Amino acid sequence: xxxxxxxxxGAASPATSTLTDPVPGSASALPGAGAPxxxxxxxxxxxxxxEIAAFVAPALILFFLFVVWPxxxxxxxxFYKWKGYGPLVDFVGLKNYVxxxxxxxxxxxxxxxxxxxxxxxxxxxxxxxxxxxxxxRRMRGQxxxxxxxxxxxxxxxxxxxxxWLQMLAPRYGVIDTMLGWxxxxxxxxxxxxxxxxxxxxxxxxxxxxxxxxxxxxFLAGLQSVPDELYEAAQIDGASWWQxxxxxxxxxxxxTLRTWAFLSMIGSLQLFDMVWILTGGxxxxxxxxxxxxxxxxxxxxxxxGIASAASVVLFVVALVLAVLYQYFILRxxxxxxxxxxKKARR
Amino acid sequence: MTATTDVRGAAASxxxxxxxxxxxxxxxxxxxxxxxxxxxxxxxxTLGPVLYGVLSGFRTNAQLAESPAGLPxxxxxxxxxxxLSNPSFWKYALNSTIIAVITxxxxxxxxxxxxxxxxxYKFKWREGIYMVFVLGLLFPATVAIIPLFILISKDxxxxxxxxxxxxxxxxxxxxxxxxxxxxFLQAIPDELEEAxxxxxxxRIGFFWRILLPLSGPGLVTVGVLAFVGSWNAYLLPLxxxxxxxxxxxxxxxxxxxxxxxxxxxxFAFTSLAMIPALVFFLAMQKRIVSGLQGAVKG
Lengths: 345, 298
Hints:
By secondary structure, chain A is mostly helical. Helices cover 72% and strands 0% of the residues of chain A.
């Protein structure tokens, strides 16, 4: 995704930046600013460099200090046995990685993350698409409806999680009560207390929280499908279902694929909701890689293990991102975009 | 994320949308009752838990235990008044607000400053520096959390401070900010810059007097996204903040575990904690959506 972004911008920038030189005719002095030696640098070029440095410096410093440096440290910590105090001397090589990858809890966490990735996409994509297609028409109260759909997304995961925690409380919670109305009974320890159901309950709550985002984004994507296509299809006598299948869904492709990508990355990092609902339990049935590494790091002070887990988390995310970019998103930069751009005109 | 850069495209198609609004998709009529029925179910499922929480705050624990799904009868105000007279609640809300404001200010100021040369200056390292930020999109905060915790609490001694949370939050929000802002600044016509130069404006003068006012909508979008992120953040505050400096999400989590048996009280606390976020975010809803839309548009 990174190279795609630069490719686009790279393509766009020469046109926009040719005229940015303040002094007309001084373009010849500019290459000299970039290529050291040879040419005499005039005051304007030095001034320009200072301007650039002054403008970019705050962001770069902030970014290196709080993003790059900690990540480098995480990689470093992952090679040491370290309890969080004293000097970093106990170098253990890859031992932390071996123990993380042989740890059943971590492997379970990795599996849970992957289940959540697949389940989020498999549940929210069809459901969100169906609702978006149904709502994609002029109707009274549409604005209100869209606002309402967005509410769960706006709440923090903690607040949403606490409400669901209360609702899911065994026996006295409203969910169990409502199940009682139709003659069903929730599990004795509650849905979150029973290892068989806990993970799927978390997934259900996540679906409630994030489905609205999917619907809103799909609706936004639907807005950019040209009406002409619909009109033409209607004239040709296509049915509603045919129109959706042959026009709407293909045109929505890029939105769907990018949404799925964001959803995937988010699912791999999942922490807040699990921490609130189950804390990773019962019996590690809902641990994720993030809850694992926080537990190891802060509760057990195994900073080396925690760092190795975080590096594994990053590598998994990176590998999935690259594969996704390569096999799925790549299409968007070529065929689909061209079609859409043509269609837009 | 690929297409985050294509803000101009997004902006263009947004205005197309507005034009199209008048003759919008009336292509598929019919099935209207079905649509309404579907919409009602969606609304009920979406709002149900939120309304349930708010209503349950007006009940007593006895009422909740007797009929967990009933309506308040009689309506009880003591839970809500209890929370509102709880000084911790206000402290948490104040901390959340200050941290979110600092984060947002840092992100917007540093972001637009960095985006300006990256968008409109020509220099050797431009694409390289930009790539550093783009790659930053790939790094989940979770990966860096342990060293970040050590850096802030031990090395910088900012463990229990507003800045200790705001600085890293801003740093992690910078990549997406710059990636959204750069094309936005590039889209401002060169003619404007030339005209400003002819009138004697320096590049910095151009930045202050023309670029900043013109990029208002883009700044609001990234600002809102940063505010949302900071307001809802949990992990970093969880590790770094104690008692006096806790934010609202931490306060909610604490209250719910400390008063686990007082369900009505927890519902009241949680419902009140929702309000500031809901009001602010719903007012800014269009901005949030267009920001996200810009990030997802193909």
